[in-house]
Amino acid sequence: MEEEELECPNSTSEKRYFPESLDSSDGDEEGVLACEDLELNPFDGLPYSSRYYKLLKEREELPIWKEKYSFMENLLQNQIVIISGDAKCGKSSQVPQWCAEYCLSVHYQHGGVVCTQVRKQTAVQLALRVADEMDVNIGHEVGYVIPFENCCTSETILRYCTDDMLQREMMSSPFLGSYGVVILDDVHESSIATDVLLGLLKDVLLARPELKLIINCSPLLVSKLSSYYGNVPLIEVKNKHPVEVVYLSGAQKDSFQSILRLIFEIHHSGEEGDIVVFLTCEQDIGKAYEIVCQEGSNLNPDLGELVVVPLYPREKCALFKPMDETEKKCQVYPRRVVLTTSSGESLIWSNTVRFVIDVGVERRRVYNPRIRANSLVTQPISQSQAEIRKQILGASSSGKLFCLYTEEFASKDMRPLKPAEMQEANLTSMVLFMKRIDIAGLGHCDFMNRPAPESLMQALEDLDYLAALDNDGNLSEFGIIMSEFPLDPQLSKSILASCEFDCVDEMLTIAAMVTAPSCFLHLPHGAEEAAMTCWETFLHPEGDHFTLINIYKAYQDTSLNSTSEHCVEKWCHDHFLNSSALRMADVIRAELLEIIKRIELPYAEPAFGSKENNLNIKKALLSGYFMQIARDVDGSGNYLMLTHKQVAQLHPLSGYSITKKMPEWVLFHQFSISENNYIRVTSAISPELFMQLAPQYYFTNLPPSESKDILQQVVDHLSPISTIKKEQKMCEKCPETTEQRCTLQ
């Protein structure tokens, strides 16, 4: 099948592609009889194509294939099966197909198959590959569901989805009645959603004895899973592959220069094969990209072209496409150098990789519930991550792994498993979901990786501040509506508040833009001044949230007035904007609008640009983000957080940084403690507006500070009328409880 034939169809019409040898369009009877003798695909009733048999031979060479009989036998006799194997053994693509065969054999009486993935790129890639191997149409018999994109129909037999999407499905279908087999893949990634699913499925399996659960994991997690689920069958897949590991003991001191030196040494050696480089963080990707591109342009052309592929986090993997005809005609194939971080570990599937360079450390986000902020922490990768990076070379006839650390470092400083996200992330969204699922009686979850009590308490406190909980600590009606949105609870609260303040249209745009990847392109060296000049045309004096609306509206106008997608792409490129991010924002906004209409929330006509509308947008933002306020303490752009004593600066891409006009008080969307301590996406607010919209008991609980004293003076000087209104609003809140009533009608 050609690449475009694998895209998710927009219509329900099906189209199958056959090799020319099967074309009987001339009406010849022998051709008809020949077709009747062809083996039919049981999933769609159509004859198999020649490509199916070609791919079948490749599948039979996978290490997992020899375990098929053992797996099918265990699947029939047991409710839970654990499969342990390396990253390249084929378990993610073959096991779901075997489960689909099982569901077919019982006539789908218990449902179809769902296979979860931690990363959306992996879910899409696997669905495309498996649809090709099963010789069926993507979006019909095999499909995928990822955030804000559903490529399935009601007839889909096998669907790949991100773990958070299956978790959300449990809000409407707690017992997952549409599925006969649930496959949790890459459990060793330890995402929050996977941990939640592992716990909830314990109860679901008891309620549905016919449901099957398959768990795919790395060998290092087997003992922990076995003790968690009890004595369940284990299938171990052995995948021996020749990989030469080279430890470079002195490279840790100057790992960046060591990486660059290795890339060029490999290229000069003349050995064939692509190179994958695992760097510490996203900033290193950009830095390495510029240097390798610059140095690569001066290399001897007889060595072949050096193509640098930066694979940033959150970007779709367009990696390792088949060589085009021009490349095939080259006597020396171009060598690709892929620059990525830990997020790229499961995205690299090419058989052309012969070299992996591993720096051995990564930058992780670790959430601190005391200050409600992430810290960017550089720490060693885990032993399981190191093994996965080694396995990228598993499909090669031979490969070489360069470790920029010592064997002693690997054994002593690296943990066996990657830290569970449950123990390092903000749990507010997870707690909101668990409160919602408790309505169905599944809220008492036994987590394999238990969250820190402090993080749980902070999450409950935040939901209380956001009026998502009632007097008894259960979800309020407001909280139930908030859980309908696939967003951070603070953003959901702002959207609901916008219904009261008649600015839903504008708030949906802001929500879509901050949820999608950044709309600003990664700037090549020397392009900063030109980019800033372009971006200045979008700046809005009220703040970055308003600037995002301007950018989205300009993109929409360009899309409506352009004759082709190419024109829109060119417009984005000319303005240094990320076209794929803006397309994603468009999709996100459409889904949010659909939710607004489905639950029948009020929707006012857009009025962006008026003074009243600007004020209303700030009111809606403050209703959700009153916990993310900072004040410029010295007039030079040093912003002190209201909730703690961290000082931060505005991000360089903030409109205020560009115009050099620093407001005293700002509301910000994101803050991470790192080398630069930037606050991102900021808009100016007044202390009077903050005091009108922040819950009184939140203000009371703030730690003593100069900023709090200033706010108290604002309260003391409020007019009697406004004070009465404030008290009337707060009297709906019982003094002995911590419930704030929803003011939406």
Automatic annotation (TrEMBL):
UniProt source species: Marmota monax
Keyword Acetylation: yes
Protein known as: Putative pre-mRNA-splicing factor ATP-dependent RNA helicase DHX32
SMART domains: HA2
Lineage: Eukaryota, Metazoa, Chordata, Craniata, Vertebrata
Annotated Gene Ontology cellular component terms: mitochondrion; spliceosomal complex
Major enzyme class: hydrolase
Family membership: Belongs to the DEAD box helicase family. DEAH subfamily.
Protein's cellular compartments: Mitochondrion; Nucleus
